Amino acid sequence: MKKIILASASPRRRELLKLAGIPFRVEPANADESPLPGESPKEHVRRLALLKSGVVAARRREGAVLGADTVVVVDGIILGKPASKAQARRMLNLISGRTHEVLTGIALVDAAAGRALSAVEKTVVSVKPLSKKDIEDYVKTGEPMDKAGAYGIQGLFSVYVKGIRGCFFNVVGLPLPRLSELMKEFLR
Which of 74, 116, 149, 157 has the greatest count of CB atoms below 10 A from its CB? Predict the structure, then answer.
């Protein structure tokens, strides 16, 4: 299999691609991730995945470029990465004792032909009630600061996850089974 170009600086996405045995190199896209007015969370992650892969593909003459974007959604509100500890606390209070969705948009773009395929994966996550101390202790670790929804399911926050319905890898940041399907279709 040829190397894909990962249009992301996410260390979790790199780890997941290595885990799946997918050869890749990294070339971050650095795209504006702000939601557009009236854009649904599903449209948002698909658009950003296509945007990121498209930005990198435009700089290349060939190669398959993978873009991805993950958000947490509570009551229709998109929670991206917190910009501050106060914002991380607010996000954690919002998901405490509740069920929310994690959406990841993925897109593959053929840099030579401009052909693109995309998909959106949804996983439902239930979180135990968090005390003020739980939230404060977790925020102090620094772990929430670079993660959508202010938590990493694969890290210290795992003790607060009551259950999930769907793809675990999606919550980490890259739905490997869906990516595998998309890659098979892309290579046809």
Answer: 149
